[in-house]
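To the wet lab folks,

You asked to see what we're planning to order before we commit. Fair enough. Below is the target structure as tokens, and below that is the sequence we designed to fit it. If anything looks off to you, flag it before the synthesis order goes out.
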């Protein structure tokens, strides 16, 4: 049995390839660019972070040494410059450490060991000529930096906790009263670990990005396949699609009506009732206090507010289903809309509406809603001084609603129109009609046209 899709198989494959190949090329290019940028970014980040991490370690050791120096200075100030004070300062520095490998060391300015908490044997020897494996004169450099007001020296030193020689950064200051060089140091393995973690996080981020690109790519390719086959299905079921579009348009119109009513209730009735409640609560308070005169005034005010709320409810009910449209016809209903608008806004409305009989119920309803929404837009945005509504029949119905307000920006409307204008357009186009806007400062006209075949009942 031959498949009903077989006559179009070659065409589908062609469309699919034409759509998929550029997409695949773009995805591969993006993946390559992202990988290249990530490599550059990781190199730049590591290069820029290294001095920041080193400076953080320097700040840490400098703060630690400055704390020790201030503690010694306070001890001298408190106890005086005596041998006993020297002993107390030495023992105090011996006890101050932060971790197994971070501690104070003290030498005099001639290089003699004064205090070393991890290597006590160094306290009886001279280390002026002490060098690290790289030839750095450790003690001389530390004394030199200390005499300059405090400074850093990088060197290699035996690490007590591991027994290995590792890179270290030291900071030293001078205690001038005793010619002591007081210093401390930090091993730089922590910085290297931080750099390693940063490098690993960049690699992980790169891997995650590649995975995301892959997922997006697969989704995009799948969408291409779905789009091609959906296009074929659409071509084969065009009549069904039109019916679905019509149903969606009806649902949108219903949702717009619901939104409008909800806003009316929220902005009008709900707030009015809240105001009534507040006024009656105030009256109740005055009654509890025995003050009947102000309570009476508040009660009268609440009654007036209730009457206004009842009028709003009747207006909303009328907007939901205008009985006058069935009883008196479209021309009378539109004239009534104009009178209500004038009463509410103090803007005069000139209504030139010719009687039209025998209209379909949905046509009369759509035209009535068109005028109602147009007047609502004018009240909200136009700042008009006059409004004119005309309805006449000439090879169809022509309905115009115009005002002399500030006008509309038609370029913005082409990109994005509000719900009101969208609703008006859909109502007219759903009946096979045409919708048009003409606008400039001082003149705006909303035009609706319905052909003859859209108007009459069967």
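Sequence we intend to order:
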């Amino acid at each position: 049995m031959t498949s009903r899709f077989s006559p179009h198989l070659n065409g589908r494959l062609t469309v699919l390839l034409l759509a998929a190949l550029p997409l695949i090329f773009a995805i591969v290019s993006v993946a390559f660019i992202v990988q290249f940028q990530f490599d550059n970014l990781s190199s730049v980040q590591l290069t820029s972070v290294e001095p920041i991490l080193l400076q953080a370690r320097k700040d840490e050791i400098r703060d630690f040494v400055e704390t020790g120096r201030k503690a010694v200075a306070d001890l001298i100030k408190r106890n005086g410059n005596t041998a006993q004070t020297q002993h107390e300062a030495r023992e105090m520095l011996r006890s101050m450490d932060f971790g197994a490998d971070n501690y104070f060391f003290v030498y005099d300015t001639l290089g003699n060991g004064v205090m070393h908490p991890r290597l006590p044997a160094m306290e009886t020897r001279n280390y002026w000529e002490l060098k690290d494996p790289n030839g750095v004169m450790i003690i001389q450099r530390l004394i030199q930096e200390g005499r300059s007001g405090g400074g850093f020296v990088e060197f290699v030193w035996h690490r007590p906790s591991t027994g290995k020689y590792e890179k270290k950064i030291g900071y030293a200051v001078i205690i001038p009263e005793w010619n002591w060089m007081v210093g401390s140091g930090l091993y730089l393995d922590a910085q290297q670990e931080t750099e390693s973690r940063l490098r690993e996080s960049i690699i992980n981020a790169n891997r995650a990005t590649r995975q995301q690109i892959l997922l997006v790519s697969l989704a995009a390719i799948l969408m291409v396949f779905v789009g091609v086959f959906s296009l074929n299905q659409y071509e084969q079921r065009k009549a069904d699609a039109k019916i679905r579009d019509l149903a969606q348009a009806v649902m949108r119109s219903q949702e717009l009506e619901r939104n409008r009513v909800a806003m009316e209730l929220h902005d009008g009735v709900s707030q009015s009732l809240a105001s009534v409640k507040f006024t009656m609560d105030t009256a109740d308070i005055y009654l509890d206090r025995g003050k009947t005169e102000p309570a009476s005034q508040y009660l009268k005010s609440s009654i007036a507010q209730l009457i206004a709320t009842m009028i709003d409810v009747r207006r909303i009910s009328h907007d939901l289903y205008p009985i006058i449209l069935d009883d008196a016809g479209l021309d009378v209903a539109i004239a009534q809309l104009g009178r209500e608008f004038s009463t509410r806004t103090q803007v005069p409305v000139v209504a030139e509406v010719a009687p039209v009989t025998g209209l379909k119920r949905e046509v009369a309803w759509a035209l009535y809603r068109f005028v109602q929404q147009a007047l609502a837009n004018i009240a909200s945005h136009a700042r008009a001084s006059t409004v004119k509504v005309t309805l006449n029949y000439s090879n169809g119905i022509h309905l115009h609603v115009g005002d002399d307000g500030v006008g509309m920006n038609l370029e913005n409307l082409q990109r994005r129109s509000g719900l009101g204008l969208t609703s008006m357009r859909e109502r007219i186009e759903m009946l096979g009609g045409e919708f048009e806007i003409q606008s400039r400062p001082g003149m705006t006209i909303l035009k609706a046209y319905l052909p003859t075949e859209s108007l009459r009942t069967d």
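Structural context that might help your review: Confidence is low (pLDDT under 50) at residues 1-9. The two ends are 46 Å apart (CA to CA).

Thanks,
Computational group
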